[in-house]
Amino acid sequence: MLEKGKLIEIVGQENFTDQLEELVPYSYDASMNVHRPDAVVWPESTEQVVEIIKFANEHKIPVVPRGAGTSLSGGVIPIKGGIIIDLARMNRILEISIENRYARVQAGVVCDDLNRALAKRGFVFPPDPASSTVATIGGNVATNAGGIKGAKYGTTRDYVLGLQVVLPTGEVMHTGSYTMKCVSGYDLAKLFIGAEGTLGVITEVTLKINPLPRHAMTAVATFAKLEDAGKAIFQTMTSGVLPSVMEILDKVTLKSIKENTDIDLPDAEAMILTETDGFTWEEVEAQMEVVLGVLKENNPISIKTAKDEKDRLNLWKARKSSYATLARASNSFVLDDVTVPISKIPDLLVGIQEIAQRHGLVVATYGHAGDGNLHPQILYDEYDPEQVERMEKVEEELFKLAISLNGTLTGEHGIGLSKANYMTLEHDPVEMALMRQIKKTLDPNNIMNPGKRALDG
Amino acid sequence: MSNQLKLDEKRRKAITQCSRCGFCRAVCPIFDLTKRPITNARGKMILLKEVMEGKLPVTEGVAQALLRCTTCMNCTVNCPSGVDPQEIFKAARKDLVGMGFDNLFKKMGEVIEKYGNIYGEEERHDWGHKKSRAPYVLFVGCVGTFREEESVEETIRLLDLSKVDFTMIDEVCCSGVMEDVGYSIKGELAQRNVQALQKTGAKTLITTCPYCYRVFKEHPSYKDLGMEIKHITQFLKDFDFGVKTNKKVTYHDPCDLGRHAGIYDEPREIIRKIAPNFVEPRRTRENAMCCGSGGGLRGSFPEDSIEISRSRLSQIIEETGAEILLTECPSCLHNFQNAKLRKQKIEIYNITEFIAKLIQEQQKKEAA
Prior knowledge:
The complex is a heterodimer.
Chain A: H1 4-11, E1 16-17, H2 20-23, E2 39-41, H3 46-59, E3 63-66, E4 83-86, E5 93-97, E6 102-106, H4 111-119, E7 123-124, H5 137-143, H6 150-153, E8 160-166, E9 172-176, H7 188-192, E10 201-208, E11 210-211, E12 215-223, H8 226-237, E13 245-250, H9 251-260, E14 270-278, H10 281-297, E15 300-306, H11 309-328, E16 332-335, H12 345-359, E17 363-368, E18 373-380, H13 385-404, H14 423-426, H15 429-442
Parallel strand pairs in A: 2-4, 3-4
Antiparallel strand pairs in A: 1-2, 5-6, 6-10, 7-11, 8-9, 8-10, 12-14, 12-15, 13-14, 13-17, 16-18, 17-18
Helix pairs in contact in A: 1-3, 8-10, 8-12, 9-11, 12-13
Chain B: H1 9-17, H2 29-34, H3 41-52, H4 60-67, H5 74-77, H6 85-98, H7 105-115, E1 136-139, H8 142-147, H9 149-161, E2 166-168, H10 177-180, H11 187-199, E3 204-207, H12 210-218, E4 228-231, H13 232-236, E5 249-251, H14 265-274, E6 278-279, H15 297-300, H16 302-320, E7 324-327, H17 330-339, E8 347-350, H18 351-367
Parallel strand pairs in B: 1-2, 1-3, 3-4, 5-6, 5-7, 7-8
Helix pairs in contact in B: 9-18, 16-17
């Protein structure tokens, strides 16, 4: 039984709960994993986080840091119970230094809130997960979140200059720098980026910021053959131009959008949505000319371009509706994020359809073709045990397929609970042993988000 | 207590359909305040999912959680999974009352029955305008009548100045709000309103309150009314008032008028005619944040309600720099007036009230 008196002493009665009804929402994220925490705290300062962690470490109580809880892999599910540290109230933008190109924020700052503040100064933090209206910077760092613009602008990792982390022993570590370059000591910040809260609580982040591109031009192309779409993607990515967006939608996704919305789409095997951006129109158009050239060479059924905002939004409609349309098409779904080398995208898409057919489930795939990161959405019914079993088989084969194509289990959602059993598919025993050793060294009592990523064993 | 929620198949499906993406966090006025997931649509949908699956007993805590919602519908329009949480919460509130989890609105129901209004007021202002017959009949509603009298007076003046041939009735509460907080509309009161309205022989019913508008339009108790129902912004949109202000003006979409009734353009058409210096708030139209007064929240969680209002008002002031905030809802107006701090210089009016004031100012100038 948790001694709550100490926690209440640290954060105050109003920032603590162990009321059943309040714990229930914390038992979930956007995946299918469920487990109750014993208590939730909303710290308001790093000092409070330190005290919470010291208390938890002393009593060997599991701790799970949580941002907006949008994770799709069970990363924030307190599978061993314990304390949830909800960082939502540590949401201050501490500093925006345009002259030094960085922003320093508390972990609970929401991505879009930061970008709204930066946009006023003509700057941006580029990673743009679909959940950016609610996702927190701390969560972005903990999962190394990416998004649609990953191919050109990378993922969160590429923007983290420095971190403040409360280690599992309660010490506060500052790592990284405020500089554009830094090769001083081991790059410990990288160790905590994408660690899904298993090594400590990120409380403060210093992010590199970019000038906000002033213009963008959008194009959409459809293809009768998947191979042609695949070729168009990797030829574009090697054409000398890096589009800011290079998205693909497979035929199952297109069919679902066509059947459930009023969006006019041709019968096609694949659709590509692409965008070029830049400081001037000339630059944007010149890049788009190259991209269009490649698209045209690969037998498209149709190509449309848009310059003004209204047309742009129109072209984005199909891509933007994919998640929503599919979410409505079934009782339940699993949204994965396997990633493969770019030239392997057609093989991955064909393979996914073979797996789906073999197990009689609908799997619609769309995603960030420009960096090989695709989102197969597996539709099923969580109340039908037989379908659950088939969904699990589809996932297992999907992961095996991605690995066989020199890919990875996860490009941006993280391992969490959902993919923990597949860690050894991707990581050899030597690497697994080192990961476990690192975890043990930093967190001897295994209090930080235990039960995740197959690190406990 | 056992799981006795009666939610129908459609609502049960919607509860399963919630993919728990959490996107509703960005638009929930209560979550914005508390940062507690139980106050957000996703949190409440999860509670209902567990109740439905028999994993969570129905408790007073569940009942209170479901009551803590302004039913502003901002989550609905931003839900990728196509779920309308507030509609489900309202149905669940009724089920919970049926299971013995009465709430403070039971008392309000008694007050409405006894006094014919939500406040237990015994006297009402006599606005005059009691003609036996007229082509138009104006319905003001409880909040306007008893809490925003001055504003209503100006609205009436505007109709007079615009030479609208209208009458008013001895109105009683439309009582639609009872449906949203776990109880039922007061059929007898509805009947009294219907009879009084019909007696005027009016072809058109004009409401100043967007909530009353919806009740007359949507609730079966009023289905035999037999007249066209218009919100006052719909009615006045083609009028030419012949006045203008140079002040910077902005507009707050009431949830009941905007997201619930789909009326976004008419208020703006009117405002653009009188205020060329019109600016939209950042969160506007379908995405307008709630003033905090809806869904019974002002009664059940008054502190939340006023904080939400304060936050919305501060954002509007900060983002627009407007001198005048217009809306056309007595509840929004009332909540904003209560929330406004002394240091905030913005003036807040209903559109109709503001135009009446402009006309009077102009008349004074002309007279001078």
